[in-house]
Automatic annotation (TrEMBL):
The chain crosses the membrane at residues 46-64, 84-104, 116-136, 148-169, 178-198, 210-232, 285-304, 324-344, 351-371, 383-405, 417-436, 448-469. It is a multi-pass membrane protein. GO terms for molecular function: transmembrane transporter activity. This is Major facilitator superfamily (MFS) profile domain-containing protein. It comes from Pestalotiopsis fici (strain W106-1 / CGMCC3.15140). Residues 50-473 form the Major facilitator superfamily (MFS) profile domain. One of its GO terms (cellular component) is membrane. SUPFAM superfamilies: MFS general substrate transporter. The lineage of its organism: Eukaryota, Fungi, Dikarya, Ascomycota, Pezizomycotina.
Amino acid sequence: MADTELKAEEPVHIESRIDPKCDLSALNTEDAEFLASFTEAQRKRVDIRLIPMLTILYLISFLDRSNIGNAKIEGLDTDLQLDGVKYNIALCIFFIPYILLEIPSNWMLSKVKRPSLFLGAMIIGWGIVMTLSGLVQNYAGLCVTRLFLGAFEAGFFPGAIYLVSAWYLPNESQVRIAIFYCSSATAGAFSGLLAYAIAKMDGVGGYGAWRWIFIIEGLASIIAGVVAMLLMPDAPGSSGYFLGPEEIRYLQVRQLAVPGRRHHGQGEGGHKFDWKNLVKVLKDWQMYLLAIVYLSSTGPNYALKFTMPQIIKNMGYQSSMAQVLTIPPYTVGVIATISSAMLADRITWRMPFAIVADLCMIVAHAILYVFGPTQKQHIPACYFALCLACVGFYPIPPTVNAWLISNTAPQNKRAMAIGYFVGLGNIGGIFGSFIYRDSEAPKYPSGYATAFSLACAGIVSSLILEFCYKKINDKREHVTEEDVRRQHSEEALEEMGDRSPLFRYSY
């Protein structure tokens, strides 16, 4: 891949055989023809190796952070005397290191040559912490384990997003993110079923059921971390153990053919920490509008995930049945997320799916707010609202993360942006830990009203983003590429990234 520009005297008429999102002007004739010679089989090989692994690992990650909700109704709050807001504080503490360590973790991931070892070590770390959580004897011990759990889990989700951006084109990313992100919904369903089974171990070895929930799921995480070290694919250039040289070249060339993705002087490892790119990320207006949309999901989602077993129990069900009844809402959330992601990638338009998801949340929380005081008399309506809320929660994170990947460049900035953005989104976990208070049960007016308001804010932000992206793109269309290249060198344009006059935002 010597040249980065297609020479005028060597026209290539192979556009019909290449993804329409690829920019042939970024390639020389040889690379363009090489790109056209490959089929989707190579991409499917990556799908089979990478996406199931990320899905299983994110499932385990979410199980370990959210199983405290299942443990609570199995006696955690009683044994550790979690009166008042102690339980909420224990939830909140997890998110402090989780948010603060997102950017450093993703920078380190972009620097190492073997992301599989880095992520695998993190998984083993949080598995050990999770196992030790089953041995704590008081509130302070629980808080310490939640703090370390947040520290070890911090880098996994942004790291997974970064790996997807390294392997796939922007118009292929949302459905892949959605597949592994859906494991967080599956975790909600699976954790209820798993907790129901583990609860049968109450008293075994002198341990309560809630302790066995932590211990067994923690040991499973340790095993998963070892497997990840052995089987997870690394960056394309470091995956010679399951890809041939031409397959690696194909994956690298197709990344170069995406507008705004040509990165000057960057490999797949050994990046220096670039403070200029960090400043660009912090000052990037789109980060904060996207974050509002993200928060419209993460805050209410974390809140409901921690509280759903209790809400269902308040309808009059026993603890074991409340665990099982968490499964259908998460299941419909998975279906909605995969369906919307497939359609969004096909039409390459994210905004409508974010708005529809927020509308579902508005309706769901309006129903819960109205019928909350009398939910035992309106069980069908309230249970339907829980399902509809999950239809709203889960499609949004894949949507906004795919939106972000498409609209940030160059590569170093993208790595930092993903870490920062996921950190912003997980601020929702902090306030989400407090909006459902035991003192307000079973009505939970603060929780339902907060979720309703955030969904409204998410809709407004999505519309503003769409308007701004179109406005900027229209302005850039009035400047010819020849004029731009006369004023700026290739290196300068690559340094500008998404601020380059040649870059086009996706909707």
